């Protein structure tokens, strides 16, 4: 079904190899799941945040990392922060 | 009775409760901290030395002028919630209207059952006066801590922010008493906070800033009286009083040369001072 999307002359790997390469991401997902469970079950004291750092790394990921996950923000980041005005991404935008 | 001042003559006037803390008198004994915690059912942690996550509505800071030995001076200043006037930063940012300023009393309240624990107010408060309940309230059994619990103050659960309330329940108690005695006005000494009451050197004065007869409204006019981070425009209702210029200077962030001293002499420089190093001035 997705064959038109695949590049020519490239073969699919076997499902087991595919599963092997997803393991790191599954582990990351499991870590996130465990953290979410701990926060919901035991409270925010699990996060190592404190009254001094009320938001801590949470706000860094929320504002910096997740914002860069959005295409327009990322294009803006590349264009204006990194100065990649002539890169392919910018030329696609124009 | 929403407001203590329903008398016909005083219908327009509202109360504005405030505090003046005399830093020259304060010895840093910490009685205010203990009394505050006992009065307001502030829970403790098994490890109370983890100061980043413990709760201290009234907190005592130690400041120093940073000079070497003969000129070293140390001052302590207790820091309750400043109860900022008009537009407190915490009230502006609260997404669930859990904290409000009561314009009849000037008290910035915290409604625990409304708080969703986003800690936005903590980030907004310039005085670090707000504390988050990282754990459920904990009062060790058979150590006496469970015996002093006050039925007038609601306990806080895990996941809400709490702060100094100017012992709001004491105002309620005083109002009920006044209502029972068919009075409209509260006397100055009828309502005061726990920290005001216990201070052994009476460094804390509490009262109505709008009432010219109250002692606080006279004290705030003194040139030695200042407020913390006054130039932020938060208009705190907690005032500090110090005759020492370096203490007043630490009350705000000044650029070099920006601070204009009220007087250049401090008590150390006075003739009657017996402090070592006085002769070197």
Polypeptide structure, described:
The complex is a heterodimer of chains A (about 90) and B (about 280). Chain A is mainly alpha-helical and about 90 residues long. Chain A has helices at about 15-40, 55-70, 70-80, 90-94. In chain A, about 60% of the residues lie in helices and about 0% in strands. By secondary structure, chain B is α+β, with helices and mostly antiparallel strands. Helices cover about 15% and strands about 15% of the residues of chain B. Chain B has 7 helices and 10 strands. Chain B has helices spanning about 30-40, 90-95, 120-125, 170-180, 195-200, 215-220, 245-250; strands at about 15-20, 60-65, 75-80, 100, 110, 130, 160, 205-210, 225, 240. In chain B, the strands form 4 sheets. Chain B has a 4-stranded mixed sheet. In chain B, strand 4 and strand 5 (about 110) form a beta hairpin. Residues about 1-10 of chain B have low confidence and may be disordered. Chains A and B meet through loops of A and strand 6 of B.
């Amino acid at each position: 079904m997705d064959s038109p999307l695949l590049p020519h002359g490239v073969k699919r790997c076997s499902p087991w190899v595919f599963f092997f390469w997803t393991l790191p991401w599954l582990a990351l997902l499991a870590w996130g799941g465990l953290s979410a469970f701990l926060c919901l079950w035991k409270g925010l004291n699990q996060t190592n945040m404190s009254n001094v750092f009320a938001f801590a790394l949470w706000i860094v990921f929320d504002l910096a990392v997740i914002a860069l996950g959005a295409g327009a923000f990322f294009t803006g980041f590349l264009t204006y922060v990194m100065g990649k005005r002539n890169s392919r991404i910018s030329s696609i935008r124009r | 009775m929403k407001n203590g001042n329903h008398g016909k003559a005083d219908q327009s006037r509202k109360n504005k409760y405030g505090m003046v803390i005399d830093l020259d008198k304060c010895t840093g004994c910490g009685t205010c901290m203990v009394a505050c915690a006992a009065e307001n059912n502030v829970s403790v942690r098994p490890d109370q030395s983890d100061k980043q996550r413990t709760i201290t509505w009234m907190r005592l800071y130690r400041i120093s002028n940073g000079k070497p030995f003969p000129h070293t001076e140390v001052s302590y200043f207790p820091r309750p919630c400043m109860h900022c006037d008009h537009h407190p930063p915490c009230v502006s940012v609260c997404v669930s209207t859990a904290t409000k300023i009561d314009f009849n009393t000037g008290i910035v309240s915290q409604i625990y059952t409304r708080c969703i624990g986003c800690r936005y107010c903590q980030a907004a408060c310039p005085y670090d006066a707000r504390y988050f309940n990282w754990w459920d309230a904990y009062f060790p059994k058979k150590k006496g801590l469970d015996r002093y619990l006050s039925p007038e103050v609601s306990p806080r659960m895990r996941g809400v922010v709490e702060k100094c309330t100017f012992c709001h329940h004491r105002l309620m108690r005083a109002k009920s008493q006044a209502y029972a005695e068919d009075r409209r006005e509260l006397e100055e000494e009828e309502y005061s906070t726990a920290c005001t009451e216990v201070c052994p050197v009476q460094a804390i004065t509490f009262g109505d800033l709008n009432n010219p007869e109250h002692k606080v409204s006279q004290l705030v006019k003194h040139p030695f009286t200042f407020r913390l981070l006054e130039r932020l425009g938060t208009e705190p209702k907690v005032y500090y009083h110090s005759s020492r210029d370096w203490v007043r200077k630490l009350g705000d962030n000044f650029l070099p040369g920006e601070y204009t001293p009220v007087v250049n002499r401090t008590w150390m420089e006075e003739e009657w001072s017996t402090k070592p190093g006085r002769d070197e001035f």
